Structures are given as structure tokens and as C-alpha cells.
């Protein structure tokens, strides 16, 4: 396995040279540090899948890593969405309770 080359940033083009599973890519974006973080994450997922499956086909590893990342995303999204619904219900309940207290105070005052 070749040693990993350090990432290179080009401030003019917002391009970052990264390595993912021993392949070099030039990626562009407004936040080079974020791109590096994403590339490291994808690289780590591909390496984890390679260890678990002993697959050497890079395309197959990339697809399996993408499936793992998609699964993580959808689990987080589902948890976030269900949490949001619970927060909205609680906020509505608290708002109704506050309205009742304010109405009682208004009637009494």
C-alpha cells in the first residue's frame, strides 16, 4: 500500500487534492477543510468495508460504503424527524398552557 499523500489546497480554484482509498481526486468547494473531512470519512468507510468483506473490487467497495453512509444518513434523519415532531407537540402543548394562564390572569386582573 502506498503512503498517503498530504492533502493540497489551491485557494484560487477552491480545489483540494485528496486521497480516497489510495486514489487521488481533485475536489472543489467553498470550504476546503470540510471537503477534507468528507474525503477522510469516505476513505474510512471504504477501508472498514474492505476489512469486513475482504473485497478488492474498488467499485464494489465504493457502492457498499455508499450504502452504509446512506443508512447512517436515513437513521439520523428518521431520528431527527421524529424528534422534531415530538418537540412541536410539546411546544404546542406548552403554548396552549401559557395561553390558558394568560387568559386566567387577564380575567382576574
Give a verbal description of the structure:
Helix 1 (32-53) crosses helix 2. A three-stranded antiparallel sheet has the order 1-2-3, covered by helices on one side. Strand 2 (15-20) and strand 3 form a beta hairpin. It has 109 residues and is α+β, with helices and mostly antiparallel strands. It has one domain (8-108). The protein starts with 7 loop residues before the first strand and ends with a helix. 67% of the residues lie in helices and 14% in strands. The mean pLDDT is 87. The protein contains two helices and three strands; from the N terminus they run βββαα. The protein has helices at residues 32-53, 58-108; strands at residues 8-10, 15-20, 23-28. It is elongated.
Tally of helical segments: 2
Count of discrete domains: 1
Which ranges are low-confidence, i.e. pLDDT below 50, for 5 or more consecutive residues? Answer: none
Global Rg? 24 Å
Give the SSE string: EEEHH
The beta-strand count equals 3
N- to C-terminal separation? 79 Å
Mean pLDDT: 87
Strand order of the largest sheet: 1-2-3
**Tell me about the biggest sheet?**
3 strands, antiparallel
Characteristics of this structure?
alpha+beta; elongated; 3-stranded antiparallel beta sheet; about 110 residues
Summarize the SSE layout with pairings:
Elements (H helix, E strand, L loop, with lengths): L7 E3 L4 E6 L2 E6 L3 H22 L4 H51 L1
Amino acid at each position: 500500500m502506498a503512503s498517503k499523500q498530504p492533502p493540497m489546497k489551491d485557494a484560487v480554484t477552491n480545489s483540494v487534492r485528496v486521497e480516497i482509498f489510495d486514489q487521488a481526486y481533485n475536489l472543489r468547494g467553498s470550504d476546503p477543510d470540510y471537503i477534507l473531512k468528507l474525503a477522510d470519512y469516505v476513505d474510512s468507510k471504504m477501508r472498514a468495508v474492505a476489512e469486513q468483506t475482504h473485497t478488492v473490487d474498488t467499485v464494489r467497495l465504493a457502492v457498499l460504503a455508499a450504502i452504509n453512509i446512506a443508512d447512517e444518513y436515513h437513521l439520523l434523519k428518521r431520528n431527527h424527524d421524529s424528534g422534531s415532531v415530538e418537540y412541536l407537540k410539546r411546544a404546542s402543548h406548552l403554548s396552549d398552557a401559557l395561553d390558558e394562564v394568560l387568559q386566567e390572569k387577564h380575567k382576574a386582573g
